[in-house]
């Protein structure tokens, strides 16, 4: 696994603590099991660069081994989420790459989405202001999305002469908002307002801007305090069952649930119920 400067501390048993991780291209902190990742170039509406793409990919891969992170909040600084790929740092250089170079880049950006979908922790995106291009994909690849009325989400790839099929958009977006609505956004590249995003199911809820981050962290904290092994299994099955028939899915869920029944958290929940107490989950 390749890291940019600031490698997380390696723990015995090939586990990883990310509490002391110093990110190079965004802000990252861990508190009470919740990691908050903040895209932090507010003067440019938090665009991505080649380096930030790579570091994000590697960090989400590392989360699979992080015992001290139970949920992740993804947000942006300065009243915007993310404006997509940086025009000067990415778009310009891409016009000068040969085909193998361009394919290496598009595969790398897709690997970021794969890493987000395969990391076991639920990811909660807190989306305010501009959420465009690759930024919209980061929100889409998250598990839960909270927005604001003033947010503007746009899959604007066709606006720059590219296909709407980018970083898995044609697979992910129809599953969230439906085929017809996804087709409209991906063909036109138009902005989707916060109210429309909530109505279409892209946002789970719309918050006041000043309350957005607290709401996302509160949601994440509730998950972090819950049965985190079971949450990881739920995320895994949500991912895997996209490509299964119903019979396959029922069998896969039977196996997944049997595994969860063998956890200590399941036994804790039973004994707490018998004692009329609230269970204290520990993720094992």
UniProtKB/TrEMBL annotation:
It holds the Pfam family ECH_1. It comes from the Bacteria. Gene3D superfamilies: 2-enoyl-CoA Hydratase, Chain A, domain 1, Lyase 2-enoyl-coa Hydratase, Chain A, domain 2. InterPro entries: ClpP/crotonase-like_dom_sf, Enoyl-CoA_hyd/isom_CS, Enoyl-CoA_hydra/iso, Enoyl-CoA_hydra_C. GO terms for molecular function: catalytic activity. PANTHER family: EG:BACN32G11.4 PROTEIN, ENOYL-COA HYDRATASE. Belongs to the enoyl-CoA hydratase/isomerase family. This is Enoyl-CoA hydratase family protein. It comes from Duganella alba. The lineage of its organism: Bacteria, Pseudomonadati, Pseudomonadota, Betaproteobacteria, Burkholderiales.
